[in-house]
Amino acid sequence: MPGTRKLGRSSSHRKAMLRAMVTFLLENGRIETTVTRAKEVRAMAEKMITTAKTNDLHSKRQVLSFVTKEDVAKKLFDEIAPKYTETKGGYTRIVKIGPRRGDAAEMAIIELV
């Protein structure tokens, strides 16, 4: 089945959750979540970093329409994107850390490389 994973949520809830998680990842550099969520967050975060590498008005508006905090968007353009100017993708790493205690969901840490 091509496309995005539904993650058991409505489309608006899913989009809001992914926006929040991508913003948090860019703000802190790493987050702990389930493996399936981490894979979705990776796709969106890599798109944001690739867009930020252009660093023009259009890309700033595109990033600001997705990232929920202005200071995180500024950090993305000023600090994060310049680190990856030579790299063509692969800005994040997902490390599996085993099952969650409550429901045995497979957990992972996603971090910026």
Care to describe what's here?
This protein has one domain: Alpha-Beta Complex (50s Ribosomal Protein L17, Chain: A). 53% of the residues lie in helices and 18% in strands. It contains four helices and three strands; from the N terminus they run H-E-H-H-H-E-E. The protein has a three-stranded antiparallel sheet with strand order 1-3-2. Strand 2 and strand 3 form a beta hairpin.
Quick structural gist:
The protein has helices at residues 11-28, 35-52, 57-66, 70-83, and strands spanning 30-34, 92-99, 106-112.
Question: How many structural domains are formed by the residues?
Answer: 1
Distance between the termini: 29 Å
Task: Give the overall form.
Answer: globular
CATH superfamily: Ribosomal protein L17
Biggest sheet strand line-up: 1-3-2
CATH fold name, please?
50s Ribosomal Protein L17, Chain: A
- Percentage of residues in strands: 15-25%
Order of helices and strands: HEHHHEE
Task: List low-confidence stretches.
Answer: none
- CATH architectural designation: Alpha-Beta Complex
Largest sheet: 3 strands, antiparallel
- The helical percent reads 40-55%
Highest CATH level, the class: Alpha Beta
The pLDDT mean sits at 94
Annotation field: number of helices: 4
Radius of gyration: 14 Å
Properties at a glance:
single chain; 113 residues; alpha+beta; 50s Ribosomal Protein L17, Chain: A; three-stranded antiparallel sheet; 4 helices; 3 strands; globular
List the helices and strands and how they pair.
Layout: H1 11-28, E1 30-34, H2 35-52, H3 57-66, H4 70-83, E2 92-99, E3 106-112
Antiparallel strand pairs: 1-3, 2-3
Helix pairs in contact: 1-2
